Amino acid sequence: MAVPANASGAAFIRLQDALVHLNEQGQEQYAGYRVKILQSSALEAGNISISWNPAAGSPIIHNIKVYRGDQVTDVLKTTSFEILRREDQLEAARLDGRLTAVLRVPDLRVGDELEVSYTIHVNDPTLGKDDAGLLFLGSSPLPGRYHLELSWDDGWKPSLKMTRDMTAVVQNGERAVDFRFDNPGILVPSKDAPGRFQWQRVVEFSSFSEWAGVSRRLAPIFAKAAILSSGSTIKNEASAIAASNPTKLGRASAALNLVQQNIRYIFIGLNSGNLTPAMADETWQRRYGDCKAKTVLLLALLREMGIEAEPVLVNNSGTDDGLDERLPSPRMFDHVLVRAHIDGTWYWLDGTLPSVVPPSTTPTLPYRWVLPLTTQGSSLEHIEWRPANRPDEINLTDIDTRAGFDQPAHVVSTSIKRGIEGLQQQVQLSGATPDQLTNALRQSLVGNTWQTVEDVKWRYDEKAQASVLTIVGTWKLDWEDDGDGARSMALPGGGFSPPDRRGRAADQDQNLPYYNKPDYDCYVTTVRLPTSTRSGQWASKPGFDTHIFGRNYYRAFALRGGAIRMIRGSRVERQEIDAASARKDNERIAAFDNSRGYIFFDPAGQQKPIASAPNVPSTDEIDWTADNVPCLSADARDKPAG
Predict the structure, then answer these.
(1) Which of 470, 632, 623 lies closest to 554, judged by CA?
(2) Which residue numbers in the chain have pLDDT < 50?
(3) Which of 137, 233, 301, 451 is deepest in the core (most CB within 10 A)?
(4) Is residue 9 a contact partner of residue 142, using CB atoms and an 8 Å limit?
(5) Dihedrals φ, ψ of 80, to 5°?
């Protein structure tokens, strides 16, 4: 494509080809481009990096040239690739065995044109003749000409599925589909729409006709890897576990703990390792492995103890919304774990999680679609989402001001975290000594709100599946002077910002639903009032119990026993909001109570003292790690849909 005189941006793409050909050897992936360098920021295009799996064969470099006016330089005549065996994600414990060729084009200048083309072979031994993949054009490409093509040999035609924007431009050939774009526009996904509506300019291809075919293909591979040798020491481990635990659930818990504690996580993607797990005996011997290896070892232990279990493919990246609308592909998953059937109930077991995570009737991550691997072949299974019955995070703040307004307040601050954040904190803090933890938090906190940090305690409550961190010290409280001896203070975590208006640009689909990222948090504050004051001298902002945009906003105050108690909770109750409901709630934003959680003292007395709401316990009155804590109104907890 000719470079226009008014070309703008960092570079202009004169041509970019992305071609995939399917045959009995797998995939041949061709990439070719010729780019005009318009600004210095685009000179990094001269840092060429090509990565491949050597098990599938070496790449073919067709062409690297630089055009400068009438001068053409063949870069490969004077400059060579450097071959590196480097693990790009070694810090994330990933070994994939890929090779990388790097070349730095010398003397590349603004105004030059760089031309590069190469072919890479892709062949996954696990899948054999079956495979799947994607062709796509990004949402905001540089100006220029783009060409995508999928072709195949006779007998290798895959199933195809395209987004509407690709269907509109497809050119069908006898053994190919072709897509050409000149200066493709910028595509912006509909704002705040669920993930399944975010797919744009994508072509899917797959040789699998159904998800059950993926399940059938992979199930025997995992079953074979879980077979133990006659002299396997894993059998001894299973016998010891069975002897020490009378129940199946107890045995499954012990087996899971063994895998979590004794096999360190390292992703192994060498040769056929991307989808093929290592043998259970091999993993036990070397004491490291990835999710596939840990799953297979766990399956072997459970089978030795007569516990029914199966591997299940899942997506940990949170991109499985709409997976049922995709073509069947094992590449839509990035993780595998175990599901065991014990006493009539299915339990999830993940050997890659910390050893504080036991078998659970619900997965740790909120999967939408999963694929069990079974001999007969299983279809995708949908996991229904429900509002959380326990907060993801609770912050408890006990402020003791009994010594008076002008004295430092003694404060006990406790955070309770669940889910992935709680586990991350468990991994982070479990290796620290009490002195290390106290000193670290003292250094980071003192000087702001905290005047002193006297003590720090941390524990992971396995029964509650919660990380509990408690800090004890003193605060200098920010009492506001309201005149004539009156004072006020905003309690920590007591207010809400108004929700954002839900709306989209005119060129976007106005009728798509809006997505709510699920969360549930709770703030509990107790203020032990100065002993020189009386309860009738105190007031507070009002409480509320509001449902808007699929979220419950709750706040309640109470004054009992010489202390003001406040609870403020927020929970997503609908993961998706239909457009009509969102438009109605837009009209309600103006009336939303976004007041901070103020308490007020007036020595002359209050006309409207605090009206104590029911069931507002203080920070030390109940076990806040328990289920069904009163972070929402009773009605909201009983009717979670809102």
Answers:
(1) 632
(2) 87-93, 270-272, 641-642
(3) 301
(4) yes
(5) -115, 155
Q: Are 64 and 48 in contact (CB under 8 A)?
A: yes
**CATH fold for domain 211-382:** C8orf32 fold (3.10.620)
Q: Which fold has domain 11-206?
A: Immunoglobulin-like (2.60.40)
Residue with tokens 């079956």: 130
DSSP assignment of 86-139: --TTGGGTEE---EEEEEE-TT--TT-EEEEEEEEEE--TTTTT--EEEEE--S
> How far apart are the C-alpha atoms of 373 and 292, rounded to whole Å?
12
- Tally of CA atoms within 13 A in the half-sphere of 542 that contains its CB: 7
Q: Which residues make beta-bridge pairs with 545?
A: 554
Residue-level pLDDT at 90 = 44
- Alpha helical stretches, state H, 263-402: 280-286, 291-304
pLDDT tens digits, residue range 83-114? 886 544 444 445 566 788 999 999 999 999 99
Rounded Cα–Cα distance for residues 637 and 442 (Å): 38
The C-alpha atoms of residue 159 and residue 148 are separated, in whole angstroms, by 17
Copy the structure tokens of residue 340.
Answer: 């065991």
DSSP secondary structure, 176-193, as one string:
EEEEEEESPPP--PPTT-
Intervals of CATH 2.60.40.3140 along the chain: 11-206
- Using one digit for the tens of pLDDT, what is the confidence trace for 203-235? 999 999 999 999 999 999 999 999 999 999 999
User: Could you tell me which of 502, 575, 158 has the C-alpha nearest to residue 327?
Assistant: 158
CA distance 513 to 577: 5
Backbone angles phi, psi at 481, to 5 degrees: -85, 110
Q: With beta carbons less than 8 A apart as the criterion, state whether 124 and 274 touch.
A: yes
Q: How many other CB atoms are found less than 10 A from the CB of residue 292?
A: 26
CATH 3.10.620.30 segments of the chain: 211-382
Q: 636: helix, coil or strand? A: helix
Dist CA 636 CA 103 (whole Å): 61
Tokens 């516990």 belong to 307
User: How many other β-carbons are positioned within 10 Å of the β-carbon of residue 572?
Assistant: 18
Dihedral angle, C-alpha 283, 289, 292, 293, nearest 10 °: 10
Closest by Cα among 420, 422, 411 to 459: 422
| Exposure on the CB side of residue 499, measured as CA atoms within 13 A | 23
Region of 27 (left: φ > 0; alpha: ψ -120 to 50; beta: rest) is beta
Spatial separation of the C-alpha atoms in residues 217 and 527, rounded to whole Å: 61
Q: Which residue has the tokens 């400059």?
A: 79
What CA–CA distances, in Å, run from 234 to 227, 284, 337, 560, 570? Answer: 11, 7, 19, 59, 47
577 CB burial (10 A radius; 0-12, 13-18, 19+): buried
How far apart CA 200 and CA 189 sit, in angstroms, is 8
| DSSP symbol at 408 | P
The model's pTM is 0.92
